Amino acid sequence: MTIPMYGLVEAGGTKFVLGIASGKDDVHETVRIPTTTPDETIGAMVDWFSARGPLAAVGVASFGPIDLDPASARYGYITETPKPHWSGTDLVGPLKVGLKCPVALDTDVNAAALAEYLWGVAQGCRTSLYFTIGTGIGGGAVIEGKTLRGLSHPEMGHIRLTRHPNDLEFAGTCPFHGDCLEGLASGPAIIARWGKSLSDLPADHEAHDIIAHYLAQLVVSMQAVFEPGRISLGGGVMGTAGLIDRVHNMAARLGAGYFKSCAEDIVTLPGLGDRSGLLGALALAMGAES
Questions:
Q1: CATH architecture entry for 6-107+274-289
Q2: Are 278 and 10 in contact (CB under 8 A)?
Q3: Residues of 35-68 as b/e, b for ≥16 C-beta within 10 angstroms?
Q4: What is the pTM of this model?
Q5: pLDDT-based confidence at residue 261 (cuts at 50, 70, 90)
């Protein structure tokens, strides 16, 4: 019996991570290629996969915004993105033509949420969320085993927040909304006002409480909307020592005992670590074949 092989794509604004896998514990090979122009990057993807033989399917977990409506003439396209040259790029079409196999697409955070639901900390949860807190902030949701999509896909990184009293002057870095969550708590927003990443600032620096304040607001807002069984917080900013504990404490304070579960029960780091995105692409590929 031939074991099916899947192509995995974790498409990011600075790099694409590609992989070949036959299952969650059988990722045979990975490579990183820089995100340059669409033609160069997509061409390099097709060449790399083509050199590794026929694939049963490819899963693409991509930065966005992307068109996820299968009925749309622009399904599989990246829409209006701040990433230079990538707005209006057909991401799915060239892979289908070049590799002659099904291609499944979702956002990178939706895919990571799906991987955590299938194999990580969200197993058994009817509703679960995944957030990446890094160069940008994005959120994905899985409800009853399916990723959440509406007119487009969730953009939870752009919710509005109450400003921390010691952080009232900073305008925010989001080019669309200024001081939304991404504009206040992403990696670039932290560097813009304090000159260093959060993990490089002293443990007693006010930045730690300010960022935890914003992420705690995210937690209680998501509890109010979804009442999820798990909220996974991933991304580079969450690698800061002690940050998850600060978020727990502040979320419990902001929630004021209203929600059924306390923050420590539901807010965690990803169970799959930095593999959530790539394994999310695997989950998409396996779904495309079925």
A1: 2-Layer Sandwich (3.30)
A2: yes
A3: beebeebbebbeebbeeeeebbbbbbbbbbbbbb
A4: 0.94
A5: low
